[in-house]
Protein: Amino acid transporter transmembrane domain-containing protein
Amino acid sequence: MPVQSHQDPFMGEEGAEVQYRSMKWWHCAILMIAQSISLGILSLPSSMATLGFVPGCILIIGIGALTTYTGYVLGQFKIRNPQVHNMSDAAEILFGPLGCEVATVAQILFFIFLMGAHILTFSIMMNTLSNHGACTVIFCSVGAILCFFLTLSRRLQEVSYLGIISSLSIFIAVMITVVAIGIEAPDPIAHAINHPTLLSGFSATLNIVISFAGHLAFFSFQSELAEPKDFSKALFTLQATDTSLYLVVAVVIYRYAGGNVKSPALLSTSSTVSKVAFGVAIGTIVIAGAIIAHVGAKTIYVRMFRGTNRMNERSLVSYGTWVLIVFVLWVIAWVIANAIPVFNDLLNVLAAAFASWFTFGLEGLFWLHINKGQITSARKISLAVLNVLLVLMCCVMCGMGLWVSGKGIAVSAKTAHGAFSCADNR
Structure:
C-alpha cells in the first residue's frame, strides 16, 4: 500500500463527519498520563530495592529529565513536519522508504506485545481475586474482550475520558498499597546504596527507563490536538506527574517493605489488601491497554486511508475496517500472551530493542535533523553533543538490554508453563 507521508492525514477535515483534530491539551495530558503511569509504576519499588535509595532516586529524576527533553524535541519535530502522524512517518524523513517500513514493523510489533502484557496482567489480577478460580486462558480471553470493546472509538478525544478512570484507578491502587505497607511494615530494612550485579543492576535500570517510555504514542496524540503547539503543555504535565509519583511510590514502598518487596508491588501487602488493590487497578489494566491498542490500530488505519475520504466517513467500510483492525490486533495479542511461556522476558527484549530508540535514539536524530547546518553557536554545539550522547546511550541501552533480557529468557524458560496453560500464573 502506498505511503503518502507527505500529507497531513487530518488535513482539510473541517465539516467532515468524523473530525479527529479535536483534543484540547488537557485531553492529551490525560491520555499521556493514563498510558505512561500504568503497570510500570508497580515495578519501581523492586528496582529501588535492587539499586538502593540514592542511585534509585538519581535515576528516576535523571531519566525523567531526559525523557522530558526528548519528548519536547519530538514535539518540535512534529510542528516542523506536520505530515508526521507516527514513528513510521518520522523514520521516512530520516531514512527514506526503507526506514519507514522498518519502523512500521517495529512499532506495530511493540504495540501488540504491550497489548499482550495487559491481557496477561488482567489474568494475573483475576487469578489473585479468585484464588485461581478458573483456567488462566479463560481470564485472558475475558481481558481481551473487554479491551476490544473499549478500543472501538476512532477518536482519541473520546478515549481520553476513559483515561481519567485509568489514572484514578492506578493512583488509588498504589495509594492503598502505600498505606497498607506503611501500616504492616513487613521488613523495614532499606539501604541508601546497594551493590547489585551488572545483570540485576541494569535490569532494574531498564525497568525505570521503560516506565518513562511512552514516546511511541506521542506523535499520534499530538496529531489529534486542535492546536499542535499545545503539546508541550501536555508533556510537561505528564512529566511532572509521573516523575513525582514514581519517586514517592518507589521510596515509600521500598522504605516500608524492605529488600523483599515484590513486583508488581501490589503483591507486597497482605492477601486481602492485595486483592482490593488489584480490584481497583482493573481500570488501568484494561483502559491503558485500550489506549495502546488505539494508537497501534490508528497507525494501520491512517496508513490504509491517508489522503482519502474514508478517514472521515461514518460508512460501513471505514468503521468496519477500524473494527476489523482492532479485532485482529487483539486476537494476535491474545495468542501471543497465551502461547509464549516466557512472555514477560520477550517483552523486555522488544523494549530494549525498540523502546530505547523510540524514546532516546530517534529523538537525538530528530534534533540533529532539525538543526542540520545551523550548529554554529556554543549553545547549539552543546545541544549537539547532548543529542549525540543520547544516540550513543540508546545504543548501549539496546545492546545491554538485549543481553540482560536474553539471560532472563534462559532462566525463565526452565520453569515456564507450557503454551495455553490453565495453570495459575501469579
Summary: The domain at 25-416 is CATH 1.20.1740.10 (Amino acid/polyamine transporter I). Confidence is low (pLDDT under 50) at residues 1-5.
